[in-house]
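ok so I'm stuck.
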Amino acid sequence: NAPWTAIFTHTHHTRLEFITNSIVYLSSLFPLSIGPLITTYLSLLIQLLPVVVLLGFRKQLSLHPLALGVFLVLLAGMPQANEVMANSINLHFHFTFLAALILILPDVSGKARYALRLLLFLCGLSGAPPNILLPIFFLKAIIDRQRESWIYFAIMSVTTLIQIGLLSLGVAESTSREPSFNPMLTVFALFTQQILAPLYDIGFATQVATWLKDHLEATSLMVASLSFFIAIYSLFIAWVLKSDCRPCRYLILCIFILVLVTSLVAIGGTTGLITNGYGNGRYFYGPNAIFYLVLCFAFSRYINGLSFKNGFSLKNLVNGGEATPRINKVFSYL
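replied:
not stuck anymore, here's the structure
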Protein backbone atom coordinates (compact mmCIF):
# COMPACT_ATOMS: atom_id res chain seq x y z
CA ASN A 1 0.00 0.00 0.00
CA ALA A 2 1.13 3.53 -0.74
CA PRO A 3 1.72 5.82 2.27
CA TRP A 4 -0.94 8.37 3.12
CA THR A 5 1.37 11.13 1.94
CA ALA A 6 0.74 9.91 -1.62
CA ILE A 7 -2.60 11.73 -1.40
CA PHE A 8 -0.63 14.98 -1.68
CA THR A 9 2.26 13.84 -3.87
CA HIS A 10 0.95 11.39 -6.44
CA THR A 11 0.23 12.99 -9.81
CA HIS A 12 -1.56 11.70 -12.86
CA HIS A 13 -0.33 13.02 -16.22
CA THR A 14 1.63 15.71 -14.35
CA ARG A 15 -1.40 17.06 -12.49
CA LEU A 16 -2.54 16.68 -8.90
CA GLU A 17 -5.91 14.96 -8.43
CA PHE A 18 -6.28 15.31 -4.68
CA ILE A 19 -9.84 13.98 -4.37
CA THR A 20 -9.13 10.98 -6.57
CA ASN A 21 -5.97 10.22 -4.59
CA SER A 22 -7.91 10.42 -1.32
CA ILE A 23 -10.63 8.04 -2.47
CA VAL A 24 -8.17 5.52 -3.87
CA TYR A 25 -6.12 5.64 -0.68
CA LEU A 26 -9.20 5.06 1.48
CA SER A 27 -10.28 2.13 -0.66
CA SER A 28 -6.80 0.59 -0.30
CA LEU A 29 -7.38 0.34 3.46
CA PHE A 30 -10.08 -2.27 2.85
CA PRO A 31 -9.83 -5.82 1.48
CA LEU A 32 -9.59 -6.08 -2.29
CA SER A 33 -13.03 -7.70 -2.42
CA ILE A 34 -14.75 -4.49 -1.30
CA GLY A 35 -12.16 -1.89 -2.28
CA PRO A 36 -13.76 -1.21 -5.69
CA LEU A 37 -17.14 -0.72 -4.01
CA ILE A 38 -15.62 1.91 -1.70
CA THR A 39 -14.17 3.72 -4.71
CA THR A 40 -17.42 3.58 -6.67
CA TYR A 41 -19.79 4.73 -3.95
CA LEU A 42 -17.50 7.42 -2.56
CA SER A 43 -17.08 8.78 -6.09
CA LEU A 44 -20.83 8.76 -6.64
CA LEU A 45 -21.36 10.54 -3.33
CA ILE A 46 -18.89 13.27 -4.24
CA GLN A 47 -20.44 13.64 -7.69
CA LEU A 48 -23.67 14.64 -5.96
CA LEU A 49 -22.05 17.80 -4.57
CA PRO A 50 -23.20 19.99 -7.50
CA VAL A 51 -26.74 18.68 -7.01
CA VAL A 52 -26.60 19.49 -3.29
CA VAL A 53 -25.37 23.01 -4.04
CA LEU A 54 -28.11 23.56 -6.62
CA LEU A 55 -30.80 22.36 -4.24
CA GLY A 56 -29.41 24.46 -1.40
CA PHE A 57 -29.29 27.65 -3.46
CA ARG A 58 -32.35 27.03 -5.63
CA LYS A 59 -34.33 29.97 -4.23
CA GLN A 60 -31.39 32.37 -4.36
CA LEU A 61 -30.85 31.46 -8.00
CA SER A 62 -34.61 31.67 -8.73
CA LEU A 63 -34.67 28.17 -10.20
CA HIS A 64 -38.15 26.71 -10.48
CA PRO A 65 -38.51 23.18 -9.02
CA LEU A 66 -39.91 21.83 -12.30
CA ALA A 67 -37.07 23.32 -14.34
CA LEU A 68 -34.50 22.05 -11.85
CA GLY A 69 -36.05 18.57 -11.93
CA VAL A 70 -35.83 18.48 -15.73
CA PHE A 71 -32.24 19.67 -15.54
CA LEU A 72 -31.24 16.90 -13.11
CA VAL A 73 -32.76 14.29 -15.42
CA LEU A 74 -30.81 15.72 -18.36
CA LEU A 75 -27.65 15.85 -16.25
CA ALA A 76 -27.86 12.15 -15.43
CA GLY A 77 -28.93 11.12 -18.93
CA MET A 78 -26.64 13.12 -21.19
CA PRO A 79 -24.44 10.92 -23.43
CA GLN A 80 -21.24 12.22 -21.87
CA ALA A 81 -22.36 11.14 -18.39
CA ASN A 82 -21.77 7.49 -19.23
CA GLU A 83 -18.01 7.91 -19.03
CA VAL A 84 -17.76 10.05 -15.89
CA MET A 85 -20.36 8.59 -13.54
CA ALA A 86 -19.40 6.61 -10.42
CA ASN A 87 -15.67 6.49 -11.04
CA SER A 88 -12.87 8.37 -9.33
CA ILE A 89 -10.59 9.01 -12.29
CA ASN A 90 -12.99 11.53 -13.87
CA LEU A 91 -14.03 13.44 -10.75
CA HIS A 92 -12.37 16.64 -11.99
CA PHE A 93 -15.03 17.00 -14.68
CA HIS A 94 -17.72 17.08 -11.99
CA PHE A 95 -15.67 19.60 -10.03
CA THR A 96 -15.45 21.73 -13.16
CA PHE A 97 -19.23 22.00 -13.12
CA LEU A 98 -19.17 22.65 -9.37
CA ALA A 99 -16.65 25.47 -9.82
CA ALA A 100 -18.93 27.08 -12.41
CA LEU A 101 -21.81 26.83 -9.94
CA ILE A 102 -19.81 28.49 -7.16
CA LEU A 103 -18.88 31.23 -9.61
CA ILE A 104 -22.51 32.32 -10.06
CA LEU A 105 -23.74 31.86 -6.49
CA PRO A 106 -24.83 34.97 -4.58
CA ASP A 107 -22.75 36.12 -1.64
CA VAL A 108 -23.48 34.24 1.57
CA SER A 109 -22.40 34.67 5.18
CA GLY A 110 -21.42 32.49 8.09
CA LYS A 111 -20.36 28.88 7.74
CA ALA A 112 -21.75 28.61 4.19
CA ARG A 113 -19.20 31.17 2.99
CA TYR A 114 -16.28 29.15 4.32
CA ALA A 115 -17.78 25.91 3.02
CA LEU A 116 -17.94 27.34 -0.51
CA ARG A 117 -14.36 28.54 -0.28
CA LEU A 118 -13.23 25.07 0.77
CA LEU A 119 -15.24 23.46 -2.04
CA LEU A 120 -13.69 25.80 -4.58
CA PHE A 121 -10.20 25.00 -3.28
CA LEU A 122 -10.95 21.29 -3.65
CA CYS A 123 -12.22 21.95 -7.16
CA GLY A 124 -8.88 23.43 -8.12
CA LEU A 125 -6.96 20.54 -6.55
CA SER A 126 -9.17 17.90 -8.17
CA GLY A 127 -7.40 18.27 -11.52
CA ALA A 128 -6.62 20.65 -14.35
CA PRO A 129 -10.07 21.32 -15.93
CA PRO A 130 -11.63 23.45 -13.13
CA ASN A 131 -8.65 25.82 -13.27
CA ILE A 132 -9.46 26.64 -16.88
CA LEU A 133 -12.22 28.86 -15.45
CA LEU A 134 -9.68 31.18 -13.74
CA PRO A 135 -10.14 34.01 -16.32
CA ILE A 136 -13.91 33.98 -15.72
CA PHE A 137 -13.38 34.28 -11.96
CA PHE A 138 -11.07 37.23 -12.65
CA LEU A 139 -13.64 38.84 -14.93
CA LYS A 140 -16.39 38.46 -12.32
CA ALA A 141 -14.16 39.94 -9.61
CA ILE A 142 -13.48 42.99 -11.78
CA ILE A 143 -17.14 43.50 -12.68
CA ASP A 144 -18.70 42.81 -9.27
CA ARG A 145 -15.95 44.42 -7.18
CA GLN A 146 -16.99 42.30 -4.24
CA ARG A 147 -14.61 40.95 -1.63
CA GLU A 148 -15.85 37.39 -1.98
CA SER A 149 -15.35 37.40 -5.75
CA TRP A 150 -11.73 38.42 -5.26
CA ILE A 151 -11.28 35.68 -2.65
CA TYR A 152 -12.63 33.13 -5.14
CA PHE A 153 -10.22 34.44 -7.75
CA ALA A 154 -7.33 34.19 -5.27
CA ILE A 155 -8.24 30.60 -4.42
CA MET A 156 -8.36 29.60 -8.08
CA SER A 157 -5.09 31.44 -8.71
CA VAL A 158 -3.34 29.38 -6.03
CA THR A 159 -4.64 26.05 -7.33
CA THR A 160 -3.87 27.04 -10.92
CA LEU A 161 -0.29 27.90 -9.99
CA ILE A 162 0.03 24.52 -8.26
CA GLN A 163 -1.22 22.65 -11.32
CA ILE A 164 0.89 24.70 -13.72
CA GLY A 165 3.94 24.20 -11.50
CA LEU A 166 3.49 20.43 -11.50
CA LEU A 167 2.91 20.43 -15.24
CA SER A 168 6.05 22.45 -15.93
CA LEU A 169 8.19 20.31 -13.64
CA GLY A 170 6.98 17.13 -15.32
CA VAL A 171 6.81 15.18 -12.06
CA ALA A 172 4.90 12.35 -13.74
CA GLU A 173 5.07 10.49 -17.00
CA SER A 174 4.53 12.53 -20.13
CA THR A 175 1.65 11.86 -22.48
CA SER A 176 1.26 11.85 -26.23
CA ARG A 177 -0.76 15.05 -26.04
CA GLU A 178 0.08 17.39 -28.89
CA PRO A 179 -1.48 20.85 -28.49
CA SER A 180 -2.81 22.14 -31.79
CA PHE A 181 -5.61 24.31 -33.02
CA ASN A 182 -7.85 23.32 -35.90
CA PRO A 183 -11.02 25.44 -36.16
CA MET A 184 -12.82 22.71 -38.06
CA LEU A 185 -12.17 20.13 -35.37
CA THR A 186 -13.35 22.54 -32.70
CA VAL A 187 -16.56 23.26 -34.57
CA PHE A 188 -17.28 19.62 -35.35
CA ALA A 189 -16.55 18.65 -31.74
CA LEU A 190 -19.17 21.19 -30.70
CA PHE A 191 -21.56 19.91 -33.32
CA THR A 192 -21.12 16.28 -32.24
CA GLN A 193 -21.04 16.66 -28.46
CA GLN A 194 -23.51 19.50 -27.91
CA ILE A 195 -26.03 19.13 -30.73
CA LEU A 196 -26.06 15.62 -32.21
CA ALA A 197 -25.14 13.51 -29.17
CA PRO A 198 -27.93 14.81 -26.88
CA LEU A 199 -30.51 14.18 -29.62
CA TYR A 200 -29.25 10.92 -31.08
CA ASP A 201 -27.11 7.94 -30.18
CA ILE A 202 -23.45 8.89 -29.74
CA GLY A 203 -22.46 6.36 -32.39
CA PHE A 204 -24.76 7.94 -34.96
CA ALA A 205 -23.60 11.41 -33.96
CA THR A 206 -19.97 10.38 -34.43
CA GLN A 207 -20.69 8.92 -37.88
CA VAL A 208 -22.47 12.07 -39.03
CA ALA A 209 -19.79 14.42 -37.73
CA THR A 210 -16.99 12.29 -39.17
CA TRP A 211 -18.70 12.20 -42.58
CA LEU A 212 -19.13 15.95 -42.54
CA LYS A 213 -15.52 16.47 -41.54
CA ASP A 214 -14.20 14.17 -44.27
CA HIS A 215 -16.37 15.72 -46.98
CA LEU A 216 -16.23 19.37 -45.98
CA GLU A 217 -12.77 19.91 -44.56
CA ALA A 218 -10.98 19.33 -47.86
CA THR A 219 -13.39 21.26 -50.06
CA SER A 220 -14.48 24.82 -50.66
CA LEU A 221 -17.46 24.13 -48.39
CA MET A 222 -15.16 24.20 -45.39
CA VAL A 223 -15.38 27.96 -44.94
CA ALA A 224 -19.13 27.95 -45.46
CA SER A 225 -19.75 25.14 -42.96
CA LEU A 226 -17.36 26.68 -40.45
CA SER A 227 -19.08 30.06 -40.75
CA PHE A 228 -22.53 28.49 -40.43
CA PHE A 229 -21.82 26.64 -37.19
CA ILE A 230 -19.97 29.58 -35.70
CA ALA A 231 -22.86 31.89 -36.63
CA ILE A 232 -25.42 29.61 -34.96
CA TYR A 233 -23.33 29.36 -31.81
CA SER A 234 -22.66 33.08 -31.83
CA LEU A 235 -26.39 33.80 -32.01
CA PHE A 236 -26.94 31.69 -28.92
CA ILE A 237 -24.09 33.45 -27.09
CA ALA A 238 -25.44 36.86 -28.12
CA TRP A 239 -28.95 35.89 -26.97
CA VAL A 240 -27.64 34.96 -23.54
CA LEU A 241 -25.34 37.95 -23.17
CA LYS A 242 -28.16 40.36 -24.07
CA SER A 243 -30.48 38.81 -21.51
CA ASP A 244 -30.90 40.18 -17.99
CA CYS A 245 -29.82 36.85 -16.49
CA ARG A 246 -26.38 37.73 -15.12
CA PRO A 247 -25.47 34.17 -14.02
CA CYS A 248 -26.16 32.98 -17.57
CA ARG A 249 -23.64 35.44 -18.96
CA TYR A 250 -20.88 34.02 -16.82
CA LEU A 251 -21.96 30.46 -17.58
CA ILE A 252 -21.85 30.97 -21.33
CA LEU A 253 -18.32 32.34 -20.99
CA CYS A 254 -17.42 29.23 -18.98
CA ILE A 255 -18.70 27.04 -21.82
CA PHE A 256 -16.70 29.00 -24.38
CA ILE A 257 -13.37 28.82 -22.57
CA LEU A 258 -13.80 25.16 -21.60
CA VAL A 259 -14.56 24.12 -25.17
CA LEU A 260 -11.71 26.20 -26.56
CA VAL A 261 -9.06 24.84 -24.19
CA THR A 262 -10.43 21.29 -24.51
CA SER A 263 -10.07 21.39 -28.27
CA LEU A 264 -6.44 22.41 -27.79
CA VAL A 265 -5.19 19.90 -25.23
CA ALA A 266 -7.53 16.88 -25.19
CA ILE A 267 -5.68 13.61 -24.57
CA GLY A 268 -5.24 11.59 -27.73
CA GLY A 269 -5.59 14.50 -30.11
CA THR A 270 -8.52 16.73 -30.87
CA THR A 271 -9.74 14.44 -33.65
CA GLY A 272 -10.80 11.99 -30.95
CA LEU A 273 -13.39 14.47 -29.74
CA ILE A 274 -15.51 13.63 -32.77
CA THR A 275 -14.34 10.14 -33.77
CA ASN A 276 -14.04 8.21 -30.51
CA GLY A 277 -17.64 8.48 -29.36
CA TYR A 278 -17.83 7.89 -25.63
CA GLY A 279 -14.04 7.70 -25.47
CA ASN A 280 -13.66 11.47 -25.39
CA GLY A 281 -17.13 12.58 -24.36
CA ARG A 282 -15.90 13.26 -20.84
CA TYR A 283 -14.31 16.51 -22.00
CA PHE A 284 -17.76 17.85 -22.82
CA TYR A 285 -19.50 16.77 -19.62
CA GLY A 286 -18.73 20.08 -17.92
CA PRO A 287 -19.62 22.34 -20.87
CA ASN A 288 -22.82 20.43 -21.57
CA ALA A 289 -23.88 20.44 -17.91
CA ILE A 290 -23.35 24.21 -17.87
CA PHE A 291 -25.22 24.55 -21.17
CA TYR A 292 -28.24 22.69 -19.75
CA LEU A 293 -28.08 24.87 -16.65
CA VAL A 294 -28.40 27.97 -18.85
CA LEU A 295 -31.53 26.42 -20.37
CA CYS A 296 -32.73 25.67 -16.84
CA PHE A 297 -32.40 29.35 -15.98
CA ALA A 298 -34.33 30.32 -19.12
CA PHE A 299 -37.09 27.79 -18.40
CA SER A 300 -37.30 28.91 -14.76
CA ARG A 301 -37.64 32.55 -15.72
CA TYR A 302 -40.37 31.65 -18.19
CA ILE A 303 -42.32 29.68 -15.59
CA ASN A 304 -41.80 32.35 -12.94
CA GLY A 305 -43.17 34.99 -15.28
CA LEU A 306 -39.87 36.71 -15.98
CA SER A 307 -39.16 36.63 -19.68
CA PHE A 308 -35.56 35.80 -20.59
CA LYS A 309 -35.67 38.87 -22.78
CA ASN A 310 -38.21 41.65 -23.16
CA GLY A 311 -41.31 40.20 -24.78
CA PHE A 312 -43.66 37.33 -24.11
CA SER A 313 -43.85 35.94 -20.59
CA LEU A 314 -46.21 33.63 -18.76
CA LYS A 315 -46.99 36.43 -16.29
CA ASN A 316 -48.23 38.69 -19.08
CA LEU A 317 -50.46 35.93 -20.39
CA VAL A 318 -51.99 35.15 -17.01
CA ASN A 319 -52.33 38.70 -15.70
CA GLY A 320 -53.63 40.26 -18.88
CA GLY A 321 -50.47 42.16 -19.79
CA GLU A 322 -49.22 43.16 -23.20
CA ALA A 323 -49.03 39.59 -24.41
CA THR A 324 -52.78 39.04 -23.90
CA PRO A 325 -54.01 41.08 -26.91
CA ARG A 326 -51.78 39.02 -29.17
CA ILE A 327 -53.20 35.80 -27.81
CA ASN A 328 -56.77 37.14 -28.09
CA LYS A 329 -56.09 38.13 -31.69
CA VAL A 330 -54.94 34.60 -32.44
CA PHE A 331 -58.04 33.11 -30.87
CA SER A 332 -60.25 35.55 -32.78
CA TYR A 333 -59.14 33.95 -36.02
CA LEU A 334 -60.17 30.55 -34.66
